[in-house]
């Protein structure tokens, strides 16, 4: 192969387009190479016949373009007559003509081209019904090969932003881009009818690297986006889907870090799978997941789903939301409807979760899910209530009680925030009761705290009785008369509690103190019994 074909071309498009001699050299070398490649792949085709086919094809293509321009200039212009002989590809090789065998184009560095400058090598490529680019390098704008040429790419590199032009795909047995590398992203945009720019393919991508953004816009297609293997780890910086309807599977697994995934006004008709993928920011707005949606073992630094529907099973098993050393972001599911089972089993939450604005046909599964201290402190009460109810629905009282404690702690925070916002007297008694419940037993989750309270009360009673009988501490002689009178009044008031009179008989003159300690002991014992019961499965 001529070295001018494989030699690196200038990154600057303008530099190459100004080099007319370089364009002519490359164009001539490519034409000769394609003719030789045709003779290698098609048995019985001579180099002269291959060159004649290319020359005739270029001539007739120019004739068609000129005729089209003449018709635009004047509708009355006569049609041009063919003045050059034509060699059909059917005369050379039927397999090539019927697209059963693609012409292999290997290890060529394609520079920028401009059809207006007279050395448009894309016209050479459009002569062949099927092309197979292997290990090629493209420093050019996207090639427009049209619907008459099937094309596919393997191990190719694209230096400039690439776009899939309208044309024929590689067929249902082949991937359009196999292990290719895109240095500045790639866009696949629907045509004016909202259809895929290519008619058929096994998938758009297999493995490969995409630096920049993979953008799919305004199209409906049954072609799967990915058909990756486990042999290589796919690298994608960003993924953006907007106004798309995907009838094929959307499956990504075991990829490198993905900075951003954004879905907007998109419908996934088949299975959606994002498995073991590290994602920075995930956003889905106005998205319908009509098939199964599986996010197994993926990690997310930020997660937002808004005005979306999960029609089938939605799985977030073993997912991690947020990083342990970061506290920003939130997991928000707002105006989201789950029509089937939702699974958060063994998920790890370093970010607060918000399920208040979700609709659920079945209770979600949060078995073995863990919340970091930051996530617990910032998750709202309604979310914990939803999780608690999901455990109650299956009879898991122990986990339900644990999330009841989280719910009550979130309620305590709500009351404190309301007091700071509306004044300290706002719902004071309710706030006091919830705070006491937390202090005594952490909302029924700790039986050691109320048990220590019982021991503390017993110790106080023992010290008071010893002091009562031995007089270690007494009121000084100069004590105002109002203090003994107040003590007598409190004892008289406590004596009104008739159910404690048998107890008062053993402690005359100490009725108020005994009433206070009896209430504290009863409260601590009740919290101890409740906490003990909550740690036993019913």
TrEMBL record:
Q: Membrane-spanning residues where?
A: 512-531
Keywords associated with the record:
Membrane, Transmembrane, Transmembrane helix
What name does this protein carry?
Answer: Pentapeptide repeat-containing protein
